[in-house]
Amino acid sequence: MPKLIANALLFQLGWFACVFGGDGPWLLLVAVALGVHLFWVSSWQAEGKLLLTVFFAGSALDSFLLNLGVFDFGEPRLLIPLWLASLWLLLASTLNHCLAWTAQPWWRASLLGAVSAPLSYYGGAQLAGVGLPYGTWQTLLLLAAIWAVVMPLLHGFARLYRSQYEQRLRSQQSL
């Protein structure tokens, strides 16, 4: 239980560092949070693939939404800022831990994604000064629909990589 609480607190610390600090030195807190996660809560061997997959897939998704005009960072850009991409790393670190309870049945992940992700984007946009050119409600409804699909998919990646890791461990122990 202490590791689950630490995992949730590390995510929250990183979220605030990203949203309030932008691409500045506050991102070092994200590195510290991920370092503590990988040292105490889990390990790179167990979750490295998951962290990278979610980081790249999530950054691509948000960059796609940016290019569709869903987000406005106040300057022309093709890719999301590093602080927003870092949030995907933080989210990945929770999938096998404090958010594991949402993996089964699949609708829990879908419901969590549809409700909490738009609220997180909205809060982050308000605090970080990100514009929502399509309008608040339209954007939140779009994000809810997207995240109702995304969250179960992320849990699918977590399950796949976890089973691969456990299989490697079993094969090493049988040697």
From TrEMBL:
Keyword match Iron: no
Keyword flag Chaperone: no
InterPro entries linked to this entry: DUF2878
Classification via Pfam families: DUF2878 (PF11086)
TM segment ranges: 50-68, 80-99, 140-161
Highest taxon in the source lineage: Bacteria
Keywords: Membrane, Transmembrane, Transmembrane helix
The protein's name: DUF2878 domain-containing protein
Source organism (scientific name): Pseudomonas cuatrocienegasensis
